[in-house]
Amino acid sequence: MTLPWALLITFGKVSRKSRHGCAVVHEQEALLPRGKKIGMKNLPLPRLDRHPELRHRLLPYCRLQTGEIWHDPSSQHRVGCLDAADSRHIQKLITGEKATLAIHDPPYNLVAFDERELSEYIGWCKQWIENTNTVLAENSSLYVWLGADQTAGFQPLPDFMIMMRGTPFRPRSFITMRNQRGYGTQKNWMAVRQELLYYIKGGPSFNVEAEYTDIPKILRGYYKEVNGKITENFERGKSTNIRAGNVWVDIQQVFYRMEENVNGCYAQKPLKSIERIIRASSQPGDLVLDFFCHAGTTLLAAEMLGRRCCTIDIDPIYCEIAIRRLEHFRATGKTGWQNGNPFESEIFAEKAKQSPADEHRIHRDSPKRILFGDTR
C-alpha cells in the first residue's frame, strides 16, 4: 500500500498572525476539511535514522546519488553525496585548493546508521582524519564534535583522543558547550554537556574577537601591575563582555520552537556555535570543510559569514536537506523551518491528491501509527 504524505501532518493552534505568512496558511487551509481553519503550520518529521519507511519516501526527492556533487550556481559552495572515509571521494570534492578550517560532527559510534565495535569506529575515524589532513592547508584548524557516553566508559571520546596523538594535528583546547536541557536519572548528575575538540596544524590565526559573548562583565578585580600602574580587569579588557573560554554557556541548543530547527535531524548543532568557530578560525573568502553535513549548519554559517564551504554526507537525504536549507535561507532569510520541514512542498502536493477516504483516515488515525505501524 502506498502511504500518503499527509499522514505526517498535524496542525498546531497558533495565531493567524504567524510570521510564516498568509500564503502558506492559505495553502494549508485549502487542504483541510471545509470550514476548518489553522494558524501556524505544524509539519514535523521524526528522526530519519529511526524510520526507514519515511527515508524510502524521501529518496525520490533527493537530487544527489552516491558519488555525485552539487555545485552551487550562486557561489563556490559544494555539497557531495560522498564517503568521508574514501580518499577518492575527497579528492573528487576538493581539487587543488586547500582549506583553512574543518568542522566535523561525526555520528557517535555509528557508521551509516549501523552501530560498530569501538575499535572499528576508531579505525573509521582515523580514515576520515587522514583524508581531512590531505585537504587542509599547512596552517589550519580542525574542530571535532564527539560525545563521551557516561554509560559506556565515556567512549568514544577517550580512544579518539588517543588515536589523534598519532596524527599531524596538535591539541589546542577541549571545549564544552552546555545544553539548557539534558538527560539523566535521580541517581546521577544530569548530562548537559557537548564536547568539542580543537586541533591545529602549523600556526593558524585565531581571531579572539570571535570569542566575546553577549554576557556583560559584572565582576571587578584581578588586579595586575602594567607599566608600573596597578590595573583591574575592566581596564585591561578589550570588551565590556566576557569571553566564552572553553565552557560555552551562552548558546541555546536547538529545539522545535526555534526558527533554525530542522526536523528529522537528530544531532543538529546551534548555528551560533558554528558561527563562533568560523569567525575564530577563518577569514572571509576562506574554504571551510564539513564531512558530515547533516542539517547543513556549517554550509549555512559559511554562507552567512562570507566563506566558501565544501560539505558532504554519505546519505543523499541529508545532502538534500543541506541544499534546501541554503536555498530556503536565500529565498526567505530564514535559517530553518521551525516546526515545519524541508519537504513541505512535496507533502502538500501529495496531500492534495488524496481521496476523501484517505482524508478521513488522516484525521481519524494517528500519523505515527499509520505510517510506521506503531500500535502502542
Structural notes for this entry:
The chain has 376 residues and is an alpha/beta fold. The protein has 2 domains: 5-45 and 343-372, no CATH class; 67-205 and 249-332, Vaccinia Virus protein VP39 (Rossmann fold), CATH 3.40.50.150. The chain is 30% helix and 22% strand. The strands form 6 sheets. It has a 9-stranded mixed sheet. Strand 18 (287-290), helix 8 and strand 19 (308-312) form a beta-alpha-beta unit. The longest helix is centred in the middle third of the chain and has 18 residues, at 118-135. The protein is globular.
Any chance you could write out the topology, listing elements then pairs?
Blueprint: E1 10-11, H1 22-29, E2 41-42, H2 52-58, E3 69-71, E4 78-80, H3 87-93, E5 99-104, E6 110-111, E7 114-115, H4 118-135, E8 136-145, E9 148-149, E10 155-156, H5 157-164, E11 170-183, E12 191-201, E13 212-216, E14 224-226, E15 229-231, H6 233-236, E16 241-243, E17 247-248, H7 271-281, E18 287-290, H8 297-305, E19 308-312, H9 316-332, H10 344-352, H11 356-364, H12 367-372
Parallel strand pairs: 4-19, 5-8, 5-18, 11-17, 18-19
Antiparallel strand pairs: 1-2, 3-4, 6-7, 8-12, 9-10, 11-12, 13-16, 14-15
Sheet-strand content, in percent, reads: 15-25%
Overall pLDDT metric: 82
CATH superfamily of the largest domain: Vaccinia Virus protein VP39
Cα gyration radius (Å):
23 Å
Provide the CATH topology of the largest domain.
Answer: Rossmann fold
CATH class of the largest domain: Alpha Beta
Helix content: 25-40%
Global shape? globular
Distance N to C terminus: 21 Å
CATH architecture of the largest domain: 3-Layer(aba) Sandwich
Question: How many beta-strand segments?
Answer: 19
Largest pleated sheet: 9 strands, mixed
